Amino acid sequence: MKKTIKQFLHKNGWYYPIRYSAIFRLYQRFFKPHEASDSRRETIFYKSFLPHCSLVFDIGANDGHKTEAFLDFADNIVSCEPDAENFRLLTSRFWNKKNRVFLENKALADHAGAVVLHIHHPGSAFNTLSDKWQGILEKNGENRWGEKIAFAGKQEVSAITLDILIAKYGRPGFIKIDVEGFEEMVLNGLSSRVPYLSFESLMPEYSREFAACLSRIQAIDPGSKFNISVHEKLELAEFVDRSNLEEWITGNISNTGFEVIVKMS
Fold first, then answer.
1. Of 123, 264, 132, 147, which Cα lies nearest the Cα of 202?
2. I want to staple 180 with a disulfide (CB 3.0 to 4.6 A). Which of 26, 128, 189, 229 is the partner?
3. 257-263 β-sheet, strand order
4. What tens digit of pLDDT does each residue of 228-245 get?
5. 72 alpha carbon, distance to own chain's centre
6. Quick one: which of 81, 53, 65, 258 has its CA closest to 174?
């Protein structure tokens, strides 16, 4: 019954407006307090190391849960999402925050132009611009994530660079990058310092790309310091240099899912 109602609401374009309405948030508060708790945890995590930001970039915004958290400590957020279904969701979710949340139906890459997005299904968190990550997901999905992953197709989407985004909106205090294996290409589109940024690690498959990301960051700012986040918790007591970061990774090789937080000088 619940699934039928959801399908009906989706078909008529009502699901997202209802799902992200004030009434539904009130319902969540009383009947799904764990979801509200997850959002608060994300906000507390980012506030633990970030100062107040006038501007944040959310690259790979997906369903906008990070953008929602950023609203608590940033004046404005630019949320970029190439997937058409997720972009519709974002449009509904933040329709009443157009003066603070600026949506871009774009991918981020090392160049402006057309790129290919591999589609697991519309709105899927597995959708990726990386040919390599698509192959890994289809080959190892059942062992690693407990489900067989098959991509339904692909589509051409429009891409811009971080430099272009900065030229349009200004320099952000923080850039969050979560792009399913395309992190290196996104960082190659950045040529100037920003106070803080983060990017997802996909280890061990992306060890070469991970090293390339660190090298790119150091090319922009040789004085960059790093920290590690696992489940919205900083693993290191302070931001460290690259050698100390790599030492942590070597000692925690079984931890395949973590986020690197970068602090530039």
1. 132
2. 128
3. 101-104, 74-80, 53-59, 174-177, 196-202, 257-263, 225-229
4. 999 899 999 999 999 999
5. 17
6. 53
Residue 35 has pLDDT above 90, yes or no: no
Best CA proximity match to 164, nearest among 249, 107, 234:
107
User: What distance in Å separates the CA atoms of residue 78 and residue 169, rounded to the nearest whole number?
Assistant: 8
Q: H or E stretch including 113?
A: strand 113-119
The Cα–Cα gap between 222 and 230 comes to: 25
| Mean predicted confidence (pLDDT) in 131-149 | 87
* Domain extents in the chain: 53-263
pLDDT tens sequence across 171-229: 999 999 999 999 999 999 999 999 999 999 988 899 999 999 999 999 999 999 999 99
Which of 187, 189, 193 has the alpha carbon at shortest distance from 223? 193
- The count of residues in the chain is 265
What pLDDT band is residue 144 in, cutting at 50, 70 and 90? confident
Q: Helix 33-47 crosses helix 22-31 at what angle (to 10 degrees)?
A: 100
Residue 171 main-chain phi, psi, to 5 deg:
-80, 125
